[in-house]
Amino acid sequence: MINLKSMIQVKNLVFQYPKNDGPTLKGLSFEIDKGEIFGFLGPSGAGKSTAQKVLYKIYYDYQGSVRVDGKSLHDWDKHYFEKIGVGFELPNHYLKLTGRENLDLFATFYPNGKKRNVDALFEMVDLESDIDKAVETYSKGMKMRLNFIRAIQHDPDILFFDEPTTGLDPVNAHKIKQHILNLKAKGKTIFVTTHSMETADQICDRVSFIVDGELVVTDTPKNLKSKHGKKAVKIELANEQSKEFPLKSLGENADFLSFIKQGEVRRIHTLEASLEEVFIQVTGKSLKS
Amino acid sequence: MTTFLTQLKWQFILLQKNNIISISFAVTFIYGIILFFLRDVGSLDKLLVALVLLDPSVIGYFFIALAIYIEIKHGILEALFVSSLSIHQLLITRILSLSIIGTLCSLLMAFSVKGIDFHILEYSIGSFGVSLLSALLGLIMLPFAKEFLKFALISIPSFLLFINIPLAAYLNIFDLGPLRYIFPVQGSVDLIDYAVSDTVIHHGYAYGSIVFFTLVLYYVAYQLFQKKIVQQ
Question: What are the angstrom distances between the C-alpha of B124 and each of B21, B23, B119, B212?
Answer without folding.
Answer: 18, 20, 9, 18
